[in-house]
C-alpha cells in the first residue's frame, strides 16, 4: 500500500484529504505544519505528500526545500494543495520541486486526476470515481 503524508494546519482539510486518499488506496499520516512533516520524513519517506502552502512554524515552500535536500528526499511525489493560485506561487512551487498543484477546495476527482498525472495511481474506472 502506498503512503501519503497530508500536511495542512487545518484539521478539517486533513480529515477530508484522509478520506479521499484512503478511498484511493493510500495509508495516510497527517502533520499540522512543515516542521512536524519534516520530522516524519526523516523517519520514513512517504510515496506522496499533499502539501499546504500557508502554515505556521514552517510553511509548505520551506518544507519542500528541506525535503528535497534529505537523503532520498527527491523520491516523494509532492502535490501542493493551496488557495494561492497566482502564477508566481505556482511557478515557485514547481521550481522548488513540487510535482503538481491543486487548488482548494478540492474533491476526490481532482486529487485522483493529479495523482494519476504524477504516476501515483492508475486511471480510475468510471464506476469507482
Automatic annotation (TrEMBL):
Transmembrane segments: none annotated. Pfam families: Response_reg. The modification 4-aspartylphosphate is found at residue 52. The keyword Cell wall biogenesis/degradation does not apply. Keywords: Phosphoprotein, Transcription, Transcription regulation. Residues 3-119 form the Response regulatory domain. PROSITE patterns: RESPONSE_REGULATORY. This is Response regulator. It comes from Bradyrhizobium aeschynomenes. The lineage of its organism: Bacteria, Pseudomonadati, Pseudomonadota, Alphaproteobacteria, Hyphomicrobiales.
